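Appendix B. Raw example, untouched.
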Amino acid sequence: MVRRFRVTTHSRSTQVIAPDLVQRQFIVHQPNRVWTSDITYIWTREGWVYLAVVLDLCSRMIVGWEVSSRLTARIVTTAVQRALYWRQPSEDLILHSDRGSQYASTELRSLAKEQMLHLSMGRTGSCYDNAVTESFFHTLKTEHIYFHRYDTRQEARTSIFEYIETFYNQHRLHSTLGNLSPMQFELQFTMT
């Protein structure tokens, strides 16, 4: 059965909306130039768990992520802070997302200003404006999440960690990367 797309994130009209700096240009030739981010929902017997990821468009690597039982701006800022800590990007980094309230929040705008990130947002209701991250969530769910039933949120967090850190980033091959994993693709940049 094919699921139809449904808008699930909305920003309040009082929040600042960033311009779309990406314009569906998903081919990036250097790491740490454009990151995309989004949030998805995963069911556990304890209730929903929310996963926010930060994805590098060049290598498709998940460079930051966070899981939470609450859907607040903190889940996004924590994922972005982790990406910043591990990647140490230059000042001209674009962080692209949808217009969800977590991405239009004061907390994320403050972090972006402090770290000199350029915020970018797709149009309302257009999943295609953040298609690469949406594609990652589809891959995560069809290759991993749908094969598990999680009793606890911690069990889901551990499972997500194993998928992202030990399989997806290290070994998952991508046709857009010349059938290399994100890690293998990024190694090309350290060798030059």
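End of appendix B.
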